[in-house]
Amino acid sequence: MMHDEPLSHYTFTKTGGPADLLAFPKNVAEVRALVDDARDQGLPLTVIGNASNLIVRDGGIRGLVLILTEMKTITASGNQVTAEAGARLIDTTEAAYRAGLTGLEFAAGIPGSVGGAVFMNAGAYDGEVCNVISSVDVLTREGELKTYDHRELKFRYRHSVVQDTGDVVLSATFTLKAGDKPVIRAKMDELNARRAAKQPLEYPSCGSVFKRPKGHFVGPMIQKAGLQGHIIGGAQVSKKHAGFIINLGDATATDYLDMIHLIQKTVKAKFDVDLETEVRIIGEPGQPK
């Protein structure tokens, strides 16, 4: 257990204030014990995956924070791949490839964890995890182990039932199809090349900041609004892809949030479109420490 630990050490943006308490459970029993302790002590509990599509405000997070990246076992059996919540989605796609299973190629470059992917129904290149997830094991805040089937997960765009319940995702099972390994690898390589060509992977960022509004593409709207390359503090609207906000080196979470609000305000004024954030924003306001 770590005390007053800066979450900037773990977020993909390299920003964010401290967690009062931070733990990295290694298995379900440890998760259960920590959830039980937090409940019994009346501590707020926050669970994050690998913090790739996340902004933690500069005031940090009160109570107990669990980062599940130590829970990363991935197994393949038949036409299914089961991955623990802290496993990287990228590693899960590689496991599917090695097993000769197709259906996860769209996720080959998504940097998030499996738990995060379940939480927000992660997707890319016209694919979403809801199309291939058959079941998810969770721990409720009351300490009960539970399995959701696909229907019970209530997936929709960038949403699943665990956003509503607060359940802790423990693992997910993906049901895939037998495929041709060279074809699977070629598709993964193609999508990763497209991602590298279009996205600012060389800088810290929180990934895609905004949900795609119906009938519009976010990046071009931000470009036409004249904000591509705009800088607030250490945060910049990426010159490579305007849908991304990058950390030039000394950004704070407040810089990110100020940029998000400016983009929303400007796009609303110019296009009458309300941009909703895709990135999860958590924690307390405050000054960077």
TrEMBL record:
Residues 14-179 form the FAD-binding PCMH-type domain. The active site is at R158, S208 (proton donor), E278. GO terms for molecular function: FAD binding; UDP-N-acetylmuramate dehydrogenase activity. Pathway: Cell wall biogenesis; peptidoglycan biosynthesis. GO terms for biological process: cell division; cell wall organization; peptidoglycan biosynthetic process; regulation of cell shape. It catalyses: UDP-N-acetyl-alpha-D-muramate + NADP(+) = UDP-N-acetyl-3-O-(1-carboxyvinyl)-alpha-D-glucosamine + NADPH + H(+). Its EC number is 1.3.1.98. InterPro entries: FAD-bd_PCMH, FAD-bd_PCMH-like_sf, FAD-bd_PCMH_sub1, FAD-bd_PCMH_sub2, MurB, MurB_C, MurB_C_sf, Oxid_FAD_bind_N. GO terms for cellular component: cytosol. Its cofactor is FAD. SUPFAM superfamilies: FAD-binding/transporter-associated domain-like, Uridine diphospho-N-Acetylenolpyruvylglucosamine reductase, MurB, C-terminal domain. Keywords: Cell cycle, Cell division, Cell shape, Cell wall biogenesis/degradation, Cytoplasm, FAD, Flavoprotein, NADP, Oxidoreductase, Peptidoglycan synthesis. It is found in: Cytoplasm. Belongs to the MurB family. HAMAP family: MurB. Cell wall formation. This is UDP-N-acetylenolpyruvoylglucosamine reductase. It comes from Lacticaseibacillus paracasei subsp. paracasei CNCM I-4270. The lineage of its organism: Bacteria, Bacillati, Bacillota, Bacilli, Lactobacillales. The gene is murB.
